[in-house]
Design a protein that fits this description.
Layout lengths: L1 E7 L4 H12 L4 E7 L4 E6 L3 H10 L3 E3 L1
């Protein structure tokens, strides 16, 4: 399953890497790809949507499904 989150606050490549790493640490996530220009992250796997949003927010960014 693939889902997309909107993530605000990513301004550089390091931000993308931080968001990807935070999401890849969530149980059920097999891959995460962030794009600061579109403010979106594509997540592969079967993770709880609330856990995904929480992981991004814990990393310091605003997220919405």
């Amino acid at each position: 399953m693939t889902r997309t989150l909107t993530v605000e606050g990513m301004t550089c490549g390091h931000c993308e890497q931080t968001v990807e790493a935070a999401l890849e640490g969530v149980d059920g996530v097999t891959d995460a790809t962030a794009d600061r220009e579109t403010e979106q992250v594509t997540i592969a796997g079967d993770a709880d949507p609330d856990a995904l949003v929480a992981a991004v927010e814990d990393a310091g960014y605003e997220a919405s499904a």
